[in-house]
Amino acid sequence: MMPPDTESKDPTAVSLPDPAEQGSATQEEAPDISALGEPKPKEAGHNVVLEGLNAYYGKMHVIKDVSLTFPTGQVTAIIGPSGSGKSTVIRCINRMHEEIPGARAEGSVKLDDLNVYAPEVDITSVRRLIGMVFQKPNPFPTMSIFDNVAAGMRLTGVRGENMRERVHKSLRAVGLWGEVKNRLDRPGIGLSGGQQQRLCIARTIAVEPEVILMDEPCSALDPIATLKVEELIDELKERYTIVIVTHNMQQAARVADSTVFMLDGEVIEHAPTSELFTTPKDERTERYVTGKFG
Amino acid sequence: MTELTRISAGRRRKDKFMRGLLAAATGVALLPLVLIIYYLVYKGIGQWSGQFFTTDPNGNFLGYPGGVRSAILGTLEVVALATLIAVPLGITVALYLVEYGKKSLFANVVRYFVDVMTGVPSIVFGLFIYIVLVVAHVGGNFTAWKGSVALSLLMFPIVARSAEVVLNLVPSSLREAALALGAPRWRVVTRIVIPTAAPGLLTGSLLAIARSAGETAPLIFTLGTANGLTFGLSQQMNTLPTQIFSDITSPRNAIVARAWGAALTLVAMILILNLIARAAQRRSRLA
Amino acid sequence: MERRSRHQVEAHTPVIGGGRSVLERSPLSRLPDRILKWGLAGVAVLVLVLIAYFFIRLIGESTPAFNRFGVFGFVFHNRWLPSRLIFGAAAMVFGTVVTSAIALIIGVPVAVATALYLTELCPRRARGALTILVDLLAAVPSVVYGLWGYLFLIPKLKPAEQWFADTFSFIPYVAGTVAGPSIFIAGLILAIMILPIVSAISREVISTVPAEHKEAALALGATRWEMIKMAVLPYSRPGITGGAMLGLGRALGETIAVLLVIGDDPAIPHFLFGQGYSLAAVIANEFGNESNIPIYRSALLACGLVLFVLTLLVNGFARGYVLRGERTMFRGHGGSGASDEPEVEAAMGV
Fold this sequence. Notes:
The complex is a heterotrimer of chains A (294), B (287) and C (350). Chain A is built from ten helices and ten strands. Chain A is an alpha/beta fold. The relative contact order of chain A is 0.19. Chain B has helices at 9-44, 50-54, 69-101, 105-119, 122-134, 144-169, 172-180, 185-213, 217-220, 240-248, 253-282. Chain B is flat. Chain C is mainly α. Chain C has helices at 2-12, 27-69, 71-76, 90-121, 124-136, 142-167, 183-206, 211-219, 224-253, 256-261, 279-286, 294-323, 342-347; strands at 80-81, 86-87. A two-stranded antiparallel ribbon of chain C has the order 1-2. In chain C, a hairpin with a 4-residue loop joins β1 and β2. In chain C, α7 packs across α9 and α11 runs antiparallel to α12 (294-323). Chains B and C meet through α1, α3, α4, α5 and α6 of B and α2, α4, α5, α6 and α7 of C.
């Protein structure tokens, strides 16, 4: 079990601290996406459109002809039983799927107009623009908190004062700044589970992506930490296109604007969240959301 | 959106370069192996003949210097005796550590010292036997069996460590199933653990044998040199490594040539042992 | 009911006589267990006694030399004159240390690079064969390395060495006339000899880097090499260091190969391609000469003691680094190729 989170106060109390005020934040600190400053005009968020996506592990056909649209400024959740392919789908979006030996994907994943699978596309650029948060928080164990957040930036040559500023901004944006500002050089793994996950999110947004993919980001966290991350997701959607895979239907109901239900590698239904849960159109969806299986 | 297509040329280049470098390094690592095998075959195969394998080094100053029969047979004998000492001993100690001692303080101490022994240079083992047995004139001066003892000191920690690894790989569920049936521990060990681990134990032993067959340093101090064929373990004996060693620096070309042939023989023997060992390991039902 | 169960128990553990509860085993049936346990323990004790005895004897035999020349004098005085019975082993210590250092400098980077390639970059089909080939370097015996070094490498490299010595003569300790055997060649051969062990340990360590850290790096947009630099190498550093130290331990004690290529000159060479000596080489080379001269023999054995202590220190240190208290490096399935052959690695002394 994770060591107790230092923030055990009333989680629903939201007090937006003045970003200029640096002294007081030892307790409750809400994530504040405006800490990142004005979004760059071109990067006002982008839709992600999947068309005819098929994915394979060797001969196993695990994603069957999936077509979906993830609108910008929204959170879309993907739910479904284990083995439905939900993790595989998002790993196809940032092309992490092909890192597994023997795995391949076909079809089109478009960030606005360009297919990320097009041959002239550089895969490392794809991954910078489409960030990913993993199920188990994975800060780099040999790096400090600061270095963790800066890790992605160092790859693209950001340095010095610019980098430092962005690190601070990212930490503020995820609501970690107050807790870590005095120990930025301490190891990243010294934080609690929930803090580590928010650190990973800070690391992801530090490279200024446009899409954030989340693969069951809260399943390794305790309920309070989960709530904090969900609070953060709510802030983040202002600026990014967010796709979250979750096996927890209550979570989908809480954070997602629209929800996709998948089964056996196919999309069964895609609807605004409240509709999907209250008046599902497909029988299989209904069975799943009412708990008859999965 | 051109951002997706912008390839940061510098990073791409560095990535390609480093990947190429790592691959090249692997090639460099394999180069000596290729060269050694090539030269061994190139210079040594010509030596292989009926005479080579059926005559002994004759120490003559002129003419045919003789083959390496006594060396081959000597190696076989000395290594065989060393195996008889080291393998049972090594497996025994490993059995103790895995089945009985486990994590007790005593077992850990033993483990530590066995580990220490694997790091001891082979020449130190030779020195040990020299001090303890040769200088003290225990049972003769330089004798073959003393060489075997020195080799067994070398082999023992290798056998013990690999045996411990293999025995640990036997799933505890197997042991528990047998114990739950009411079998006493010693039966579990002899009837279940050892048979399951047998291929792995064989592999470890074969590799230890292969290692000791090529050792020279422990033998220099202990079994002396002999040209002629000797069988008695309480006499001096010729072995392939010592023969090669003395031939290398000879001024006579014919003898140096013989060294290549003998080296090829030795390496061939060791390679065969290695291949058998790996084949045995592949048939193991454990790893 | 009771009779039936007694039968079943009897099938496994002989119960002698009546009046004893079915659950109790007779002392006789427990005997083999005890014999096995105490017998095995006895053997283990024997091993410890053996090692202790060895140490004591070695110290005993070396004492005359240390008495005559002083411990410090013996180790750091550079005068090895058997004909006048004056023994100071500094040249040997120098040779041992320097050749091992050269071996590390050349061998460890190549070994780690090979390990990285085989674990992270190599196409899966080639991996098995290439790994076996690299490990096969460990199967070549020392005397064959010496043969190859003496008869092939030395003559072949001599022109290149001379060119190097002439071209870079402005660097200290490089200029000179190359005779053939040298501490450089000895270091080079040692590098080749320690390569398999350092590579095997490195492969083992690198393959235990959790996938989640590698994925984190890739998801940030790192190239393969950047991922290795960010996630793999920092994590593996302690283990690789330990592996390098084990390689060092091997290099320090290597005898025959060094003896044949180092030149056997009891002097501290004044340049990289000069001839020298090593502790192990002097023992192997000169022990025959000492037949009945006690002080000569004592000096040689003192060299052995110094060597032994050196390797003990290095190996002791290394084991702490590498094993971190557990022998659980070996995992059978599950590793990405490096630990498919745990017995093989154990037999190599990994």
